[in-house]
Amino acid sequence: MMFESVNDVVSDLGSLGYICDKKIATVVFLAQQLNKPVLVEGPAGVGKTELAKVVATSLKRELIRLQCYEGLDEAKALYEWEYSKQLLYTQILKDKVSETIAETQSLAEAAERVSREDSVFFSSRFIVPRPLMRAITSEQPSLLLIDEVDKSDPEFEAFLLEILSDFQVTIPELGTIEAKTQPIVFLTSNDAREMSDALKRRCLHLWIDYPNEELELRILDARIPNIAQQLAEDVVAMMHNVRNLDLKKTPSISETLDWARALMALNSDTIEEEIINDTLNVILKYEGDVAKAQSELAKIMDIKKPAPAGDTSEAQETKSSKPDKKGILH
């Protein structure tokens, strides 16, 4: 299954609850057409991992995920030998081993005979495939997600280059294994460190930033369809004002969704000072950020109220100072 056009990407992902703009859809479409990996960068929580998941779902591909972390090495990402199983086979076949080395005159001769049977003990039956190996050997088209690649070491990043260039891997005991079907590859990065030029050359680049108010409102409506329109607009307005503060960790789309659900769980139809104070810990993850938001509560609550009906003079007077159609003061 393939996307037929950029508009197809927008509509197909939208039907799965992922609202994206044309820029994102274009990169996804080109990744499929050009068979190139996509390096998706941006702040945490803006939907980078979710993008890979919904693309896999839309294209009906198995999602194979490699979660990166400091110290991740080739063995944990690619394959491991199942030594306990090899040992079990050795115990079961010990009589045959004895027969093989019978009548040998020296240790070297015995070792030579045993070595001829290496293929019995070093074969694919003793390999435990990790995510990279699973993606390469998959019989059906898959989507490989290499998540938070910026957390891995530069040495592991260098190892990825062969995988991303040739979609093959060399196992000394078995030889070179080439991909049966080329997976679509997404790499995500929270920009914890700069990715190498060599990696970037092999990828299409996509930066996903915090959405504008219109897009974030559409995301909120899609993910929480039963939310009241006024509450949704107020939540988005508040979140954009909070993001203008000097915070250690800026809240993202995931926090917007969490906060909206929390307000609905508390049966709150409007956003008042008390409910904000009670729920700031839902969107802010550091106590210093909570204190900062509380100290500037008047600023982040500065949401325009609709002018009384027929009061055109007041509306006209405030238009220049309050240009945002959703009522956010900047």
Order of helices and strands: HHEHEHEHHHHEHEHEEEHEHHHHHHH
CATH homologous superfamily annotation of the largest domain: P-loop containing nucleotide triphosphate hydrolases
Residue share in helix: 40-55%
Strand arrangement across the biggest beta sheet: 2-5-8-1-9
Rounded to the nearest angstrom, the distance between the terminal CA atoms is: 45 Å
Residue fraction in strands: 5-15%
Largest sheet: 5 strands, parallel
- Low-confidence blocks of residues: 304-330
Form type: elongated
Q: Report the average pLDDT across residues.
A: 83
CATH class descriptor name of the largest domain: Alpha Beta
Number of domains: 3
* Estimated structural class: alpha/beta
Rg, please? 28 Å
CATH architecture of the largest domain: 3-Layer(aba) Sandwich
CATH overall fold name of the largest domain? Rossmann fold
Alpha plus pi helix count? 18
* Strand segment tally: 9
How does this model look, in words?
- There is one protein chain.
- The protein is α/β, with parallel strands linked by helices and 330 residues long.
- The protein has 3 domains: 6-76 and 131-207, 3-Layer(aba) Sandwich (Rossmann fold); 79-126, no CATH class; 213-300.
- Helices cover 50% and strands 12% of the residues.
- The chain is built from 18 helices and 9 strands.
- It has a 5-stranded parallel sheet with strand order 2-5-8-1-9, with helices on both faces.
- Helix 1 crosses helix 2, helix 12 crosses helix 13 (229-243) and helix 14 (253-265) crosses helix 15.
- The protein is elongated and about 90 Å long.
- Mean pLDDT is 83; it is low at 304-330.
